[in-house]
Amino acid sequence: MTHVAIVTDSAADFAPERAASLGINVVPLAVSFGAESFKAGVDLSSAEFWQRMTAPDAPFPKTAASSPGDFQAAYQACFDAGADAIVSIHVAGTLSGTLKSAEIARSMLPGRDIQIVDSTSASMGEGLLAELGADLAARGVGAPEIARILTERAADLNLYVALDTLEYLRRGGRISGAQAAIGTLLSFKPIITIKDGTVEAAERVRTRAKARERVIELLAARPVERLAILYTPPSEPESFREEVIAAMAGGIDPANVTVQVVGPSVGPHLGPGCLGGVVLYRRD
């Protein structure tokens, strides 16, 4: 049986212990606070990131794509550990240069079977695809077929997150200043989604409570195969998780539900106080 290794990047927001339990290799993006630079999830945990992010007068954090060298080292380590092939799933190429770095690293290892998948999403959008890839690899599916399935299933992903403010997306360069100003002036609580690799406003509602209610409706609108609840401190995700599960059309196996704090690679763009999730819809 061919041994296929699954690789992703830290924008998938996997807790290190969960990635390890699934056998998923995570390549870290860089995060900097002023002159201090870190590798997300390696020398800067999610808890440490949010402590820094919310500290008084903290510099606004910046993120940078993983380098080709980082990917080359990760790929080589997989082959050295006995992998025959690799499927590498990444944050949307429209949102980060990480996918391009992975492609360059593949060219640095000629003759190796390295399949690269653009999730067209971020956070647990790519994470749910990586989990599916790990399941397929464990069942003995070959790398080209895993990549084909994941590329096809990316169309079944949807992400909805209620933000406290659009300011962090503006400061991270993901939306314009005018878009952020309109939301602020009208006191909206925006709900964002990602479509075709682009961050968009799904809806705008007036209060935090209504935003929470609407996100639950959006996540539960169709039968779901996998669900990842996403949050940023100080939001509390557990009661939200139960409400989403209770609202799910057709129900969902709790084993297919995870709760993930948004980490250092995506957190700078969302800011504190967010609540939402990612769904992988069923295919009947």
Key attributes of the depicted protein:
Rossmann fold; 284 residues; four-stranded parallel beta sheet; alpha/beta; Hypothetical Protein Tm841, Chain: A,domain 3; six-stranded mixed beta sheet; single chain
Structure at a glance:
The chain has 284 residues and is an alpha/beta fold. It has helices at 16-22, 46-53, 68-80, 98-107, 124-138, 143-153, 167-171, 177-185, 208-219, 238-247, 267-270; strands spanning 4-9, 24-27, 30-33, 36-39, 62-64, 85-90, 113-118, 157-162, 189-195, 198-205, 224-231, 257-261, 275-281.
Over all CA atoms, what is the radius of gyration? Answer: 18 Å
> Given the C-alpha coordinates, what overall shape results?
globular
Instruction: Tell me the count of domains.
Output: 2
Order of helix and strand elements from N to C terminus: EHEEEHEHEHEHHEHHEEHEHEHE
What is the percentage of strand-forming residues? 25-35%
Backbone structural class: alpha/beta
Q: How is the CATH topology of the largest domain named?
A: Rossmann fold
Major β-sheet, in short?
6 strands, mixed
**Unreliable stretches:** 176-186
Number of helices: 11
Distance between the termini: 29 Å
Mean pLDDT: 91
Question: What is the spatial order of strands in the main beta sheet?
Answer: 10-9-8-13-11-12
The CATH architecture designation of the largest domain is 3-Layer(aba) Sandwich
Report the helical percentage: 25-40%
CATH class designation of the largest domain: Alpha Beta
